Amino acid sequence: MVEQGPVRATIRIESHFGQSTLWQDISLYAGLPIIEFRVTVDWHEKHRVLKFEFPFAIEGPIATAEAAYAVVSHPCDGHENPCQRWVDITGKVGGQTYGVALLNDSKYAYDAKGARLRLTALRSPVYAFHEPRRVEPGKLYRYMDQGLNEFRFALVPHDGSWQEASVPNLATLFNIPPTSIETHSHPGRLASESSFGFVSEPNVQLCALKECEDDESLIVRLYETIGRATECVVRIGETEFKVHMGPFELKTLKIKDTGVQQVDLIEREIM
Description:
The protein is mainly beta and 271 residues long. The protein has 2 domains: 3-127 and 141-175, Beta-galactosidase, Chain A, domain 5, CATH 2.70.98; 197-262, Sandwich (Immunoglobulin-like). Helix content is 3%, strand content 54%. It is built from 1 helix and 20 strands. A hairpin with a 2-residue loop joins strand 19 (250-256) and strand 20.
């Protein structure tokens, strides 16, 4: 036990394999439904893969993973598949829908066989090496993922579906945690609660806010995350407007002095 306080309790596990050492700080937080893993690996293996495996007591599981502005479901057949910030296994426990989401900050492959979920953490083949080439004895090669590696992931058990558990929002919060800034005591210019950007519905995420490539207008990109048609209110600074989002729709909007106009991904107006 390395931490035991009112907000967080943490245990540290040290493991060894070959010439490598792995440290896991596993934390529980007061009021948060997650088990967080902060991992440091000093990796010196060659032609090896490091995976983290989690067996669950879930019947009839389906694996669903985040893709680029999409989600993809795969059978739990043991094949490795890509993912983005989260992958979820949901099925039945005692006749009720139940699941577990695995959030991560930098690891983008998983495999699931039955109710066993594995996250691919490190791979150490020869760099940029593939069939039909063969490793030749005596030659020097560069191997991937050597040395110190640091990353985080978290388990989130949940009732119901991944949509009901707001897994995409949890993954966003996990990847963009709150940042604290210390300053001296002063009255400040902002209200105690303030936002530069606001979206009224939790299943619609503000994914991009940038200046237009052609002028000083603002470009806003929105994404509907759970597959449900939604009407939402968006506020950017002093500009407020309503938007209809289709299931899993990615929508780009241009905010001009004269109003809000939908544009495509390269900022051409859609007539």
